[in-house]
Design brief:
heterodimer, A: alpha/beta, TIM Barrel, nine-stranded mixed sheet, globular, B: alpha/beta, Anaerobic Ribonucleotide-triphosphate Reductase Large Chain, 2 domains, five-stranded mixed sheet, 48% helix, 8% strand
């Protein structure tokens, strides 16, 4: 049986997909996005978070059976309310074998994968074919800029995006709007152009940068080093998507 | 015709009337302008009470009369529902020495006067006070030989006359000001039954306010959408009123409940028990939700004030649209509506001796206890069992004696039983003061010639099992680490607790993070069930509470979770508990109501609802809500609002009893910044992520606080 490292299981995550959902956060990520808001998701190993409220270990090893039994305990509630389980991270595909085994034990529960798309194609296919919906992050279309701000090459991501479009699994593209990095006219136009013909695309979600992103770093004794000017206002451009015939919305906007 | 109009409005959360007139009233309440019309002093009663040698019931009636007489009618020119309290306090009817002598050897409940019950407002409205007076006179004729009854009935009549006189003086003032509509209404009510919704609200306003003037407190309003509905329905059918007009009147009534509330005693400002109950079922088991149910929530959204405190009776069949509307109210951060599940509460009341027709008609007391309007002289909160103390004493004694876990559990059960017996014993000489005016508003007092302090149809006591999750967690930690894993020696745990975990941080860490926790782990949840079964057994063992009633176990905490930690102010007997086996250090808070312990980091609302759905609510009918704090970001979009309504539906479907949803408020965040140990489980969500507020760097905490300051 496979085991995996989880850094949180959080219920009633109303912004992580349709219906009433529980989100599992898998620990470990190959990317190092400078705006990452879940720094405890980077390292695959358990580590200590220490703050004024005390010390705790983030990251706990679960067998696939332990994890699926926690999730299955509430499966009927999630299903009855149009929801299911979302796997996020970190990068969940970094623990693909474990993830696939967990998904196989969830019966007909609706499964959503929230991924950076950065993984070997075989791992990507293996997990995605078990999903009902995929949230696929697209950050930067320019290869060099991608390396600079996330630490990795985007070619595996773009390759997996075309794999996804061929798999007949519905998906949402999620674009974090980082001021001066991902929210530029060129980048957004390139994303719109890159996704507008993809089969299975439901919509694009834009996620405007929030300045609380660096909040957890101090508890991990890590340095938050944004590669951009945090104070710069975020440029939200819906038109570029709408003109390209792509359904788009801004996520996380507070209704007044 | 009207129902078509109303149906189209049901899904809409905004009111339909022009709010400018009431906006001004709200502003006056917020600016405390009603305080400026108050008299310098309240009437002095002691001299005349002594001179005339008045009995206690006669003093109680005289108090109501003198208070009504002292009221100086005040009507603001924009008001259509009147009465503003001008007497600044309730004067004593005995000197301190006399009071001490009179109550010597007896137990008074809280402040003394009858409180925390609910009148049969529907009945009093529909009869009118003159009919209540006629009933009193009729009984007086029937019971001529019974001097006690005669005295009570004379007292009751004295208070009725006082209220009618006050209404007449208000009518005169209205006439003087040229407000003929108000004058005409007050010439009719509360003497006679209302003919319109407007008259019903005015009648209720006056009769309710006078209860407070008699020194009573936690004066609930019950099922307003049931007993006021016939008046509104008739007005709508006769086209005397449209929806907008009705909303405006109801809003004015709601605002009026906030005018004098600074005069009302409670544990904290705002804790005044002016509850209303909406929804639920009719006495023959049909859905009781009507247009007034929706309207009351819309109006509460408009008034956005702490009174009245809205409760909503639901089942798993309640329309999601109603729950979504109610969720809008949750979003305001006032901490209501509080939900109760008819499918659980009603069978539990019936199983505990309530007639089905009465059980259908339940409302809540000031906080959460289920009571029957007009029929209950119940003392629903005589105290609370300290669940953590019961468990802690058992754990210390059991571990020291190298006993089995079963013995520790048995000791816990015995400790709970002992605490229940002590509480009941402390109430064996309960002294309930006479309450002639409140008796007028109850079922059967005037008919039988007996003051309600002698008892009504239901005379039960309530005892809550406080801080239960903390106790279950302590037991679960001992069972898991000492008895199952055997990885901790009993002595080591005892030493660590004695040292307040200083020098035992590794062990404390395991207790906090590895041991099962209520709300996350079935191993702890099942111990919580055991604790409440023990409480129910102990309460059941009390055959008679001394007033012909039983003792109802409940799941609330009120302030006990603080008192059990810090000691009750002014009461040195409540010694705080030291460090406990769940890893909690001395002085840290316990869980409140039904909620995971503040030291536990739990997965979220679904597991919590599942955990608390396991309790045997049929035996635990005193009430006490599952309490949850939601981040305001849940309500960021209509989808989140609907999901929150679905969460309430899940609560009902799982068979939980009562639910209080709070939106994380600024004050919580500020307290969390100062006292992170109290708020380890406080989650805030920003952008795409959630975090524990206390783990964020200070500058980020500031950021989130600022968002809450300016976000609304």
């Amino acid at each position: 049986m496979q085991s995996g490292t989880i850094f949180d299981i959080r219920e009633f995550t109303v912004h992580d997909g349709p219906g009433i959902r529980t989100t599992v956060f898998l620990k470990g990520c190959p990317l190092r996005c400078s705006w990452c808001q879940n720094p405890e998701g980077m390292s695959p190993a358990p580590e200590i978070m220490e703050s004024r409220s005390g010390k705790r270990i983030v990251g706990k090893l679960y067998t696939s059976e332990q994890l699926s039994s926690i999730l299955n305990r509430q499966a009927s509630i999630l299903s009855d309310n149009g929801g299911g389980v979302t796997f996020s991270g970190g990068e969940p595909l970094a623990q693909a074998a474990f993830l696939a085994e967990v998904m196989d034990s969830l019966g007909n529960l609706h499964v959503l994968l929230d991924t950076s798309g950065y993984a070997p194609e075989s791992d990507f296919r293996r997990v995605v074919q078990r999903c009902d919906l995929v949230y696929f992050d697209l950050k930067l279309m320019d290869r060099k800029a991608h390396i600079r701000h996330t630490g990795v090459d985007n070619s595996p991501i773009l390759r997996n995006l075309s794999v996804l479009a061929s798999m007949d699994i519905p998906f949402v593209i999620r674009v974090p709007l980082i001021p001066g990095v991902t929210d530029t006219d060129e980048n957004l136009a390139a994303i719109a152009k890159g996704v507008n013909r993809l089969s299975g695309l439901i919509r694009v979600d834009l996620l405007p940068y929030n300045r609380a992103a660096g909040g957890k770093y101090s508890a991990l004794r890590k340095q938050f080093c944004p590669t951009y000017d945090e104070r710069r206002p975020v440029h939200v451009d819906l038109d570029v998507f709408e003109t390209a015939g792509v359904k788009v919305r801004v996520a996380g906007t507070v209704q007044k | 015709m009207h129902s078509l109009v109303a149906e189209s409005l049901v899904l809409c959360s905004t009111t339909n009337f022009d709010t400018s007139r009431l906006d001004a009233q709200k502003l006056r309440v917020r600016n405390l302008e009603y305080k400026t019309v108050r008299l310098a002093a309240s009437p002095e009663l002691l001299t005349e009470c002594e001179r005339e040698g008045l009995s206690w019931p006669r003093r109680a009636a005289r108090l109501v009369r003198r208070m009504c007489e002292a009221e100086k009618p005040y009507i603001h020119e924009d008001e259509r529902i009147v009465f503003t309290r001008t007497t600044p306090s309730v004067p004593p009817i005995y000197s301190p020495e006399q009071w001490k002598e009179r109550t010597d050897g007896c137990t008074l409940h809280e402040l003394g006067p009858i409180s925390n019950i609910c009148a049969n407002w529907g009945n009093v409205l529909s009869q009118g006070l003159l009919e209540r007076r006629r009933v009193a006179l009729e009984t007086r004729q029937r019971l001529t030989g019974d001097s006690e009854a005669i005295e009570f009935l004379d007292c009751a009549i004295e208070t009725i006359d006082a209220v009618l006189d006050l209404a007449a003086r208000y009518a005169n003032e209205a006439l003087r000001m040229g407000k003929s509509e108000v004058a005409e209404i007050l010439e009719r009510v509360p003497a006679l039954p209302p003919r319109t919704f407007h008259e019903a609200l005015q009648s209720l306003r006056l009769m309710h306010a006078v209860v407070w003037m008699g020194g009573h407190y936690h004066v609930g309003l019950g099922r307003i959408d049931q007993y006021l509905w016939p008046y509104l329905k008739e007005d709508l059918e006769n086209h005397l009123l449209d929806i907008a007009g009705a909303e405006e009147l109801l809003a004015e009534f709601f605002i009026s409940l906030n005018k004098d509330s600074d005069l009302y005693p409670g544990v904290q400002q705002g804790d005044n028990g002016q509850t209303v109950m909406l929804g639920g079922q009719t006495q023959d088991g049909r859905d009781a939700v009507n247009e007034l149910t929706h309207m009351a929530i819309r109006v509460a959204l408009y008034t956005n004030m702490i009174d009245p405190k809205v409760n909503l009776r639901i089942t798993e069949n309640t329309e999601l649209s109603l729950l979504t509307l109610a969720t809008e109210l949750t979003r305001r951060g006032l901490g209501f509506p509080q939900y109760s599940n008819d499918a659980v509460v009603i069978p539990a009341l019936v199983a505990n001796g309530y007639d089905p027709a009465d059980a259908w008609n339940y409302t809540v007391a000031a906080c959460w206890e289920f009571i029957i309007p007009g029929k209950g002289m119940e003392v629903v909160n005589i105290g609370a069992v300290s669940m953590p103390l019961a468990a802690d004493q058992a754990i210390r004694a059991g571990l020291s004696a190298h006993e089995t876990f079963e013995s520790i559990l048995k000791r816990t059960t015995e400790n709970i039983g002992e605490q229940v017996r002590d509480l009941v014993k402390s109430y064996s000489r309960l002294l309930l003061p006479p309450a002639p005016y409140y008796s007028v508003l109850m079922d059967g007092c005037l008919e039988a010639g007996r003051d309600l302090s002698f008892g009504l149809k239901y005379n039960n006591y309530g005892i809550h099992g406080a801080a239960s999750s903390s106790a279950a967690d302590a037991l679960a930690a001992v069972r898991s680490l000492v008895f199952i894993e055997k990885s901790v020696e009993p002595e080591e745990l005892l030493h660590a607790m004695a040292a307040n975990f200083e020098g035992y941080e590794a062990l404390q860490d395991r207790l906090l993070h590895e041991a099962p926790k209520t709300g996350n782990d079935p191993e702890a949840d099942e111990l919580l069930v055991t604790l409440f079964d023990a409480l129910a057994d102990a309460c059941d063992a009390v055959q008679d509470n001394g007033r012909g009633g039983r003792v109802r176990p409940g799941t609330g905490s009120a302030m006990y979770y603080v008192w059990l930690t810090r000691g009750k102010p002014g009461d040195c007997d409540d010694a705080p508990i030291g460090a406990t086996a769940d890893g909690r250090k001395k002085g840290e808070f316990f869980s409140a109501n039904l909620a995971p312990s503040p030291q536990a980091q739990v997965r979220g609302p679904i597991s919590v609802l599942q955990a608390f759905s396991r309790l045997n609510y049929r035996r635990i009918c005193n009430g006490g809500p599952i309490t949850m704090e939601l981040s305001d970001s849940v309500f960021a979009d209509p989808e989140g609002l609907e999901k929150c309504a679905m969460l309430v539906h899940i609560f009902a479907k799982l068979g939980c009893q009562q639910l209080q949803l709070n939106t994380v408020s600024l004050s919580t965040l500020l307290d969390a910044r100062e006292h992170p140990e109290r708020h380890r489980n406080l989650i805030v969500r920003v952008w795409g992520w959630s975090g524990y507020f206390c783990e964020l760097g200070p500058e980020y905490q500031e950021h989130i606080i600022a968002r809450h300051l300016y976000g609304d």
